[in-house]
Amino acid sequence: MTYIAKPKFHHPKLPTNKLGYTRRDYEGSVSTLCAGCGHDSISAAIIEACFALDLPPHRIAKLSGIGCSSKTPTYFLGHSHGFNSVHGRMPSVLTGANMANRDLIYLGVSGDGDSASIGLGQFAHCLRRGVNMVYIVENNGVYGLTKGQFSATADRGSKSKRGAVNTDAPIDLVGLALQLGATFVARSFSGDKAQLVPLIEAAILHKGAAFIDVISPCVAFNNHPGSTKSFDYVREHNEAVNRLDVMIPREPITAEYAPGTVREVAQHDGSIIRLRKLAEDYDPTDRLRAMAYLAERQAAGELVTGLLYLDPEPRDLHNYLNTVEKPLNALGDAELVPGSAALAEVNAALR
Amino acid sequence: MTPTDIRNPDYFHKVVDCQWACPAHTPVPEYIRLIAAGRYADAYMINWKSNVFPGILGRTCDRPCEPACRRGRVEKEPVAICRLKRVAADNKGDVRARMPHRPAARNGKRIACVGAGPASLTVARDLAPLGYEVVVFDSDRKAGGMIRSQIPRFRLPEEIIDEEVGYIADLGIELRLGKRIDSLAALLAEGWDAVFVGSGAPRGRDLDIPGRKEAAANIHIGIDWLANVAFGHVDRIGKRVIVLGGGNTAMDCCRSSRRLGGEDVKVVVRSGFEEMKASPWEKEDAMHEGIPILNYLVPKEFLHENGRLTGMVFEKVAAKYDEKGRRQLVPTGEPDVRLPCDDVLVAIGQENAFPWIERDIGIEFDRWGLPKVDPKTMRSTHPKVFFGGDAAFGPKNIIWAVAHGHEAAVSIDKLCSGEDISERPAPGVTLVSQKMGIHEWSYDNDVSHEERRRVPLRPLDVALKDIRTEVELGFDAKLAYEEAQRCLNCDVQTVFTGKLCIECDACVDICPMDCITFTHDGEEEELRKRLKAPAWNPTQDLYIGGDLKTGRIMVKDEDVCLHCGLCAERCPTGAWDMQKFFLEMTHAGAACRS
Ligand SMILES: Cc1cc2nc3c(=O)[nH]c(=O)nc-3n(C[C@H](O)[C@H](O)[C@H](O)COP(=O)(O)OP(=O)(O)OC[C@H]3O[C@@H](n4cnc5c(N)ncnc54)[C@H](O)[C@@H]3O)c2cc1C
Ligand SMILES: Cc1ncc(C[n+]2csc(CCOP(=O)(O)OP(=O)(O)O)c2C)c(N)n1
Ligand code: SF4
Ligand code: SF4
Ligand code: SF4
Ligand SMILES: [Mg+2]
């Protein structure tokens, strides 16, 4: 918690984007989380990604549940729409909002407790429905806000700050997301913005259900030896399968890579994701092999990060339901009220 | 890169841009905070110790600190450091009890100072309390040097000079006024333990063009004329006045003329308006008083009739740049410009003159007639003769004269103690944590976004009526507080301890100015380009921290840091701390001796 407001002054050479905004224009109010919390780094990464993509802040809606992680939308995108919902219920509120107005960019922000404990059902259903959104879980393995109880993502055998050992099996949100049909699945680390920012950019550009599990150490309750979500543990066990750059169509491709190490994946909107391979033979478009690979590496004690799965031709809930292009909340009476003749027809069909 | 050695006093001193730029290294942010706290007398004494003439300098200083001030890189304008100094002087009350006492006993050493300007008076102030018998000679009847004889009263009231010269006189020095030194050889023969020459740069340059002799009665050398005005020998000038020259003397000449009967007063300069030597604020003040500045006009001739000046002729020129980028003033070929006038003031430069120093007594001079002086010790080629102020390296300003005076006093004190004067004393430095609670600091870290406050002026019609009426009214307590709050507290340093850092990025994320980067090591030049915000100002250092678990380094670009302390507030481990750096120059006395 910091008492003074962050000064408005910024670096004199701070760049502006296509809309004339600086990165600072995408900030929110100053964070009230514990100093050093991984969640704050994720907020900073979201800010950077939205700035880099030239997103108009008023076209973004950020939704969350309850938890330290779910508080963070206050600390970024101060000029966007926000909805702080009930514990574990962000996915249904987001789904409803998305149904009503398909034109906004939906950013669901949640915690491991919010999504894997109380909200597991909601998590599962919004992914299997393919809601077009970016779903970020700020995963610290504990209920930070209620003072550090193990959450459902805590690894079996990991120790609490007081020394208690977790005996329950962990829920692997990435594994679930792959199984449930998310069309973009990634894992990253709050302490590695070089990896995280492009992942968030790519997820925003992805027109389907995009899920990112971000390991985010809780400095107050889960950053000690014996924890598997601490800065040191994650740094030691992190195995990135790839690094990516997101190419928006208008940008010339300037980066240079050693031949054979890059894979380009064109997304539906024309943007290109360039993957610099780190793990030999990892194919992020092969869902089944990805699942097998993850299970294998996890058994070996590694924490696999990077873009794990991508369906370049995703479909979303609106495609499945065949809704009109125009957002439902923008339709008027003319489109929405079928009239008495249509009603009579429906009634007749039911007789 | 090697991690920064913050034990080297220069490292953090440089971060305090104003103090580093001040020739006397006044602890600026410290006194600004005292002003904000209403502790004017304390603020005055900090100044008095460093720069000897806070009331005078608070109105007249050339303020090298302000162009250096970090605030000017963060927003439009620097902190009004100079005028805040005046606030301390105006509101300090009676500080006589805080002044050093006359020594109980003399130390038997006798020092002569030639000239009673700021350089000599500084030497006297530093040495007298130590027991030295200091005698100051000046041909003028009053002490103060050009502070008294040149700077017009509407910028600097005489009481202020009397007061601050008085504090020094009270230390038991002897002022021999109205006494001109005509021979340094004779003075040395009197057996002084050391002689300090603070005789200034007293000669104004003349302009030798046709008509100069014939119209001499109405052509005046600027600094001579100002001295005559200051001492009351001149109290009128013609209605139409031309002032030649673009420096601060020209600005004082034209503004004085406006107060002594000049109605149509013009400043004419050879080169462009931008290249004029006068400080921007002095040009502004002159124009505010209805004085136009005409540029690119080269004086050609004085016009006269029956021995009376009637006007001047100027050739129009333009600035042309040759292949090497050197500027030349080339006639445009347009017809000459004739300007009628009753008086001309020539303010085109000042020179040193030492007719009273014999050339065979061991004091060497260079090609330009300046004595050879060691800039560190201020000693000439004669072991017992020291120079300072304008006499040492040509015309500068008061604060440089003071800085020279301090260094010369250190040298004299060491010389008289039988020490090697080339070994200079280190400054006194302390570094103290400002942490009071988790998010509480003993300084106000909430950065003010306010713009620079303007100093209120007396209405023009009142100001122009009497040359003794001070134009600036000074900040009142409210303006002073608001202006003081603009200071970024650059002396409250960000101090990094790598061993404690867990590389959580919290400081990187919170920093409003993108000062901090964690990255892999590299050469400085290349490193500067790949920081979170490229470090494009090479005059500002990079703070390098090592000892990180990942083997990376912490790089902080000092350039535009607001000293807001947010990095330290967000740091979970205390790897960043805000620590107040206080640096005080070591003056003459026990501390300067080994
Ligand atoms: C018009 C004008 C305006 C200025 N305004 C400013 C300003 O606003 N701010 C600023 O910082 N600076 C200003 N300056 C510059 C500043 O006044 C000088 O740089 C400063 O006074 C130099 O101090 P000093 O001690 O070296 O010598 P001076 O102040 O020049 O004093 C030298 C003294 O030595 C005496 N003297 C010389 N020879 C002898 C001798 N042989 N025997 C006895 N006595 C002798 C002289 O009478 C004089 O009193 C101004 C200068 C001028 C000309
Ligand atoms: C319905 C309901 N049950 C329980 C709580 C208490 N509660 C608040 S936050 C929280 C856990 C949050 O954990 P997580 O989502 O991981 O967030 P973190 O604080 O760790 O970021 C719980 C159980 C609640 N607010 N509402
Ligand atoms: S902001 Fe204050 S401390 Fe920093 S350079 Fe300016 S006056 Fe000095
Ligand atoms: S004090 Fe710290 S947070 Fe504030 S500007 Fe300086 S480096 Fe950044
Ligand atoms: S906030 Fe502290 S611990 Fe975290 S990276 Fe910065 S210095 Fe290191
Ligand atoms: Mg949690």
Summarize the main sheet of chain B: 5 strands, parallel
Quickly count the domains of chain A: 1
- For this entry, what is the oligomeric state of its chains? heterodimer
Mean pLDDT reading of chain B: 95
Biggest interface reads: A-B, 35 and 34 residues
Profile the largest sheet of chain A.
8 strands, mixed
- So how many helices of chain A? 12
Structure description:
The complex is a heterodimer of chains A (351) and B (594). By secondary structure, chain A is of the alpha/beta class. Chain A has a single domain (23-321), classed as 3-Layer(aba) Sandwich (Rossmann fold), CATH 3.40.50.970. Helices cover 30% and strands 19% of the residues of chain A. Chain A has helices spanning 38-52, 68-71, 90-100, 112-117, 120-129, 173-180, 193-205, 231-237, 287-299, 317-321, 333-336, 340-350, and strands at residues 60-64, 81-84, 105-111, 133-139, 142-143, 149-150, 184-189, 209-215, 238-240, 242-247, 262-266, 272-277, 303-310. An eight-stranded mixed β-sheet of chain A has the order 2-1-3-4-8-7-13-9, with helices on both faces. The longest helix of chain A is centred in the first third of the chain and has 15 residues, at 38-52. Mean pLDDT of chain A is 91; it is low at 252-257. Chain B is of the alpha/beta class and 594 residues long. Chain B is built from 22 helices and 24 strands. In chain B, the strands form seven sheets. Chain B has a five-stranded parallel β-sheet with strand order 3-2-1-4-16, covered by helices on one side. A five-stranded parallel β-sheet of chain B has the order 6-14-7-8-9. In chain B, helix 14 links the parallel strand 7 (240-244) and strand 8. In chain B, helix 3 (28-36) crosses helix 8, helix 5 (54-60) packs antiparallel against helix 8 and helix 13 packs across helix 14. Chain B is globular. The mean pLDDT of chain B is 95. Classes of the chains: A alpha/beta (351), B alpha/beta (594). The site of one iron/sulfur cluster (SF4) has 14 residues of chain B, from helix 2 and helix 3.
